[in-house]
Amino acid sequence: MKFDEFGGMYVPEAMMAPLNELSDAYRSVAADSGFKDSLDEILGTYVGRPSMLYLAKNLSKAIGGAKIYLKREDLMHGGAHKINNTIAQALLAKRMGKTRLIAETGAGQHGVATAMAGALLGMDTEVYMGSLDVHRQRMNVFRMELLGAKVHPVDTGSRTLKDSINEAMRDWISSYENTHYVVGSVVGPHPYPEMVRDFQAVIGKEAREQIMECEGRLPDYAIACVGGGSNAMGMFYPFIGDDVKLIGVEAAGRGMDTKEHCASLTLGEKGVFHGMLTYILQENGGQIAGTHSISAGLDYPGVGPEHAFLKDSGRVEYVCATDKEALDAFMKLSRTEGIIPALESSHAVAHAMNVAGGLPKDDVVIVNLSGRGDKDLEIVMEALK
Ligand SMILES: *Cc1c(COP(=O)(O)O)cnc(C)c1O
């Protein structure tokens, strides 16, 4: 399936068999209430769903505009939304008779969430990680090992995420008989963008019911940060057909006039990466450009193909927030509400503060608080010096 021209399956021929097998399996469980019941049970008893929808009264008052609600994915097991997807994929893999999970990870958050799912469901878990990232993210490597996963440092190329993606694909081509490749966002070849969106859509479905309960109506805005785009797609998808303004916030890093950002939708060009056609940050006629963001989770040179489609169709607006704006929002939410947000989520909070400031008091803005900030303390401490 494609999102207009975006998405697709731009992969080596040898990867078509496992992808087709996964598509078929996903289609069959999507219609299977047994699968949904098992997943709901884990989401309720292990992940901690439903996550709260919290009216941030102090923050709203300090901004002096619309009511700001926070969807508290930061309270989910592991401290972010990522577990919604890894648990669901691991459960699907188990149904398919697989005994082993593989994943690639940049900052390590997705590797940790995959290792948790592997431990819970009793599956062997191996994670590819660029050797530079292994060094930079030692604590996450140790977390994965504690959870029983094996971490493979990748020494080729730039020794970062795109090299570990290549290694994971190579592994899967020769191992798919017993192995499932857990992709961490709404990226990669079909069926991943659609499947991960559906697994994360629990966020928006809950938010929709919760806001109807609190306010008796839909929100005026829903705002989320965009790295690969899974927490944003999960929040947006159940509101796509409604009169709700949807805004995705990319990382402008050190500024849009520098090369140090990861605003793939705002400044990228169409191209193929990670098995999909989407907007990508490129240089020198097609090389993947270097990226920067203060938040490791937004530091990805591409973006999910459905976001590319939603941008071109005009249904979703995409904007950017700089490192500095994200840091200011990080401080503001910590001080006003006693909630320390992830730096990724702080980008969404920053833009929500701007939007809410210009709206009447009765308007309603929902921000997806994709994760908690404990993992970012060292970076913030450094940045505040
Ligand atoms: C990984 C991560 C993100 C970025 O990933 P998406 O697929 O864009 O959601 C955002 N927030 C947090 C807390 C993360 O860990």
Describe this structure in words.
- With 385 residues, the protein is α/β, with parallel strands linked by helices.
- The chain has helices at 16-30, 33-47, 57-63, 82-95, 109-121, 131-136, 138-146, 161-175, 192-200, 202-215, 230-236, 264-267, 305-313, 323-337, 343-357, 377-384; strands at residues 2-3, 6-7, 53-55, 67-72, 100-104, 124-130, 150-154, 179-181, 221-225, 245-253, 269-273, 276-280, 282-283, 287-288, 316-322, 364-369.
- The strands form five sheets. It has a six-stranded mixed sheet with strand order 3-4-16-9-10-15, sandwiched between helices. It has a four-stranded parallel sheet with strand order 7-6-5-8, with helices on both faces.
- A hairpin with a 2-residue loop joins strand 11 and strand 12 (276-280).
- The model has no long low-confidence stretch (mean pLDDT 96).
- Pyridoxal-5'-phosphate binds next to helix 11 and helix 15.
The residue-averaged pLDDT reads 96
Morphology: globular
Q: What hetero molecules are bound to the protein chains?
A: pyridoxal-5'-phosphate
Report the C-alpha radius of gyration, rounded.
19 Å
**What is the number of E strands?**
16
Distance between the termini: 48 Å
Percent of residues in beta strands: 15-25%
The major sheet is characterized as:
6 strands, mixed
Structural class: alpha/beta
Helix content: 40-55%
Low-confidence stretches: none
Provide a count of the helices: 16
